[in-house]
Amino acid sequence: MKAGFSDNQVGWTPHQDIYRRLCRARVLIDECCHMPLDLKRISREACLSRYHFLRLFRQAFHRTPHQYLTERRIHKAKSLLADGVLSVTDICFEVGFESLGSFSSLFRRHVGCTPVAYRARMLDLKEFPRKQVPGCFLVMWKIDSSRPRF
Question: Quick count: other Cβ atoms within 10 Å of Cβ 108?
Fold first, then answer.
């Protein structure tokens, strides 16, 4: 701190500094979610002890770093499953899970269906977009529902 300046005069508070550090750790999780990450590495990014980091992260973002990492991985898996290119096993390892069983059970817990069922539903929506449109809407706009739109 410079002589003659208090923290408030330069626009800096300890809470802002902590929040910036936590955000830096969250960016690390976002960018490296496909890699093995542990609490030690993530907390090091925030320059905090593991337990202090864990407590502050949960307080700031209403979830633990592990829960946030799992959400990011599931989000990426949903995107890859919707593409339909990779197998479920390949996606499991691509997004950073080490076990197909844990990936499937976590995916089901977060999304409400298995990865295979999610992929089938997304591919079905891509192939037949009008299937999800109510019939009364199609009649009102005079749209032929028998023709698939591509």
Answer: 14
